[in-house]
Amino acid sequence: MKSIKDLLSKITVENIKIELMRTAYGNKDTFMGKLDPRVAIVWYLIFAIIPWLFWNNTILLGFLLYMVVLLSISRVSPLIIILLAFGLVTEAGYIIFVSVMFGGDLTAAMALLTFTLKLTIISLASIAVFASMDPEKFSDALMSFRLPGQVCFGISYGYRMLPILIEEYNNIFNSFRLRGKVPEDRGVIHWKRVVYYCKTAVFAFYPMMLNTAKRTRTTVEALEVKGFTYSLKHEEVRKLKLSYLRVQPRDIYFFIFTIFLIITVIYIGHLYPIEREIHPL
Amino acid sequence: MSHLRSQQLSQSQKLMVFILSMSLFGIANIITEITPEFVLGPVELSVSYFAFVPLTMVFLFSPLHAALGAPLGEIIFADLLMGDFGGLGELEGFIEFGMGMYVAGLLVKDPTNKKQLALGALIGVGIDQMLSTIVDVGKVWFGIEELEAVPGVAESILVLEGISFTTEMLISGVLFGLIPTLWLVPKLYGKIEPLMGFEPRNPATFRSSAEVINVKFIIPAVFLGFVAMIAEFMATLDVNFAVWEPEFIDQFGMQFLWVGVSAAAIVLLVAIIGIVKLKNSQNPQDKSKGA
User: What parts of the sequence cross the membrane (chain B) (predicted)?
Assistant: First the structure.
């Protein structure tokens, strides 16, 4: 019971706000962050698809090693990686546990290991690319892939509005708490308090919705005055906006290196395969 | 009834609905991200999303734009900006959630009618959860080679997915979906629309008959797909739970697998056709207004 209370007291809105700002507006000056965003996205797509095509553990381990090296260059916060690892391990653990209950054996564990490896490679690839990419650059890259303008606008809008919205919700939530009263009788495992906070979190959305509606109207009208929807439909505007995106030699080297590496890993994997023995039926 | 005409939104009003739904659901997701979870073995009691926020939006405003904005808000605010963007995995969530919310919005004719609101809320969250179960089961199916040969895994996946489906429906669907929506929608109805500069929704607003007819196809398609997937998944393995019959698989294993895969493919196809059709039925009106 005490541990829950401690945990709750550590999660203050202030702390979370700082953590958020750090992730959203932190230093993007890493190796992956300097790549051309379009190249980085194509690179990610390759590694989101490739692991599904192989069941050979050597190949998968090779890719995993590559990801780990890249991540260590990219200086990703260790917290994100620990959280990811913990999640993957516990999930696989539950599946193994329940399958043993249904009369399975450790072949289940081996099969799941391959599956977990695939998921890990994909998640690491996405962390390597997106944790260090500037959201503005990301939205421009999406625009150059001809995604709808609203989506790209949404990303830059969110990037700028996030602090304001969090601040506002926090204020409303606190004013509800000031006017309300925390139940004195806590109940078992504080459930009455949990219910109280959940209710407040829901109630706070009523003024929040009205305020955001007003703000949205202002934003959209300001945008329309500048001809936003009109500009979305015009090729010249797009070209002007994306003119700063250039593929540098370093992007090309990186890409060639990656393709070379993929081929090598697959080749080595075929020479020394570690594959699950298919259970004889 | 002559004043009830099918109201069309201008381009900027559509953008307004889209951005509003995006920001609100984005913030809601940041809040659910930081709420602690209670994990009891494989049972996870956590609020995975505040479904009432997008539900309120699709019930009060144009369902299409609100339903597109909400999952995008989740991706941008809670994932991209907080540093855990899942790449292609996000696309899957976007389609599942967007479709659920869109159907929910089209089911409601009159936002003051509580029965319609309740039905819409439950079906909306239900579609999202069913689609995500289909995708999860499919992933394991594809990701583990010769799944039938590994005893126990498939049953355990089914059990775990079943547990998560139930808790999700209970917590996200009812406690944070149905109940707050029934409270919020009547409170906001007629109050929030003037702030954004349009008329409150009436039975003829924002729904074309083509859209409503399509919804009647989408709901059974998703539901049948869900049932088909689970049934085929079980059939591939074993009819009797926990008793292993290798001969059965030997004889029918591959065929059953293909039946399952094709069932999933059909559902996907139906979904895509439905979406494309809806888009087409929407577009001509857009053009007549937008130009």
Answer: 15-35, 47-68, 217-236, 256-278
